[in-house]
From TrEMBL:
<feature type="signal peptide">
    <location>
        <begin position="1"/>
        <end position="22"/>
    </location>
</feature>
<dbReference type="InterPro" id="IPR011055">
    <property type="entry name" value="Dup_hybrid_motif"/>
</dbReference>
<dbReference type="InterPro" id="IPR050570">
    <property type="entry name" value="Cell_wall_metabolism_enzyme"/>
</dbReference>
<keyword id="KW-0732">Signal</keyword>
<protein>
    <submittedName>
        <fullName>M23 family metallopeptidase</fullName>
    </submittedName>
</protein>
<dbReference type="GO" id="GO:0004222">
    <property type="term" value="F:metalloendopeptidase activity"/>
</dbReference>
Amino acid sequence: MRLAKICIPFLSLLLFPTIRNADSKIPEIPHSEVGFPLPYYSPVSGTFAEIRNHNLHLGSDFKSYGLNGHNILATFDGYVEEISYSKTGYGLSLNLYNPKYKIKSKYAHLHSFGGTLVELELLRRALLLMGDPTGFQLKLPAGMFVTKKGNAIGKTGETGSGPPHLHLEFRSEKGIINPLYFSEIHQKDVTPPTILNMFLEGDDLDKPLMFSAKEIAKGKFELYSESGEKFTSIQLTGKIRIRLSGYDKIRSRNKNNVYGMDLFLNGKSIFTRNFDYLSFEDKSQKHQFYDINRSSLSPPVYFYHMYEQPKQFKEEGYSIDLNPFPKKETIQIQASLRDATGNQSSVQFEIIHETSKKDLSTKQNSKKTGNKYKSNDGAVSIDLTKAEVSGDGSLLISEVSEKEIPFKIPKGLPLKGKIYLLDTKRMSWKGEGLGDLNLGTTASLKDSLYFFDSSIGKFQGIQPKRKPNGFSFKLTKVGYLMVLSDETPPTVFPMTSIARFIELPEVRNHCLEEKYYVLSDVGSGFKTNVELLVDGQTFPYEYDPDRSAIRVQLPKSLQKERPYLLLEVKASDFAGNISDPFVDLISTNGWKEDLLQASCPVIE
């Protein structure tokens, strides 16, 4: 998107005292001088350094409960350094700067400015009227718009991307600071993080091991094998890698990123990491912190490396090198996750330094040529040549039966052919792997390629394309690959509790009544174009990707002639299935005629 760049020359700045420690990553602003960004104590819905599709989340998201127009408050004394607007990304945003401590807070997805800075809101309106209405970016002179901590400086909204919420960042000269670092912003919760799984990989293991975690007391978890047996010890030698899967619930239902993690060997800390700060360089290096082939945003599942991962993504790091330890020595291991308040959850087990007991019945069902892999039967091939591969291991492709998979195939999607498990040993990759599944015949319209992400327990899209003898696809995760037949039509249902602009009635469109209808599909996916009728006539709509819903705007002038409107929606999916009509009988009784303006459209 092209932004209209309007620059005002900076006024000369006086030299301010430097922070006490010039090498400090986080400015030494007293915690008492940093306040909460909203007038109510809102829960965090998204946390710092959460994994995203292309990079890491650089701030904290605060709930606005689907409503736009709440005041945003200055987090500290300072002046507005920059304002910007775009239809994507941050949307309408504001940067507040404190020159004494050289710290900046960024507010994003706003509806408008204002509060104690009335002229700033007038400037926003003028920029959109006189400049490019699709966007602007404006640096302001120091001291033009000065404010104090706790003053209202704008309104929450949903501009840019995502549903209504406030996105808040803190930045220093060298990087980005976790908002939960500041005591007035962290959520004072009493619930420790949840540990879901422990992933154990070693030079001496034929294949990686995944253990599920079960909480037995507050913050204390036990580990269980895939067969359900309690796991307490294992024989291993060589280098091993430990990854913990988990999340943190703070004060909301959201599954958030944790604040820190620790690994202990015989009671001594050998690895620790805090997500309190990220350098500008590290913000795009998510592979340093997560197993990106197993982590996900939807639903949130984070597989944390319990070791330092090289930035260059060439060699795989490791947690412990067992080689220096005497043979038969027993080593106590504890792995922990922490939240910003200091609550901790942990798992414990022991390693006996011996060669592992190999399962001789296990055979590697894949063939490797460089960074190209094939299943034993030659049906599945994965090419990682164009992806960035780390480690000296390989991608494992194994045939499994329906009885062996740890999930149920949804009703209405019968299995066609074999199931293949894709997993890794001592390797990971960044980017897209190119895959092919050869069926030996042309798939029917209802047959499609499906991928079950074993880390998050959910079917995920892998962009399959039909070929004369099967499918091609793109792969970024590990999991199960299969062909299913889509026999189930999509569904349509109304979305309720949609409210907008609650404190700004002057911006509401009094001419139109908004209705949202959610689309969903368990199979090949719904099409965003639907058949929509109002009183038997085709009616316009638009698709809202943030809500996976169609938005219908009904002229309120219709209430003059029609006490009821009959709305019908039919949806279809990519397998050719068509839903039954969803019917909504809408009463126009509540549409107040006195609010209609002369400029409102009249439809008879």
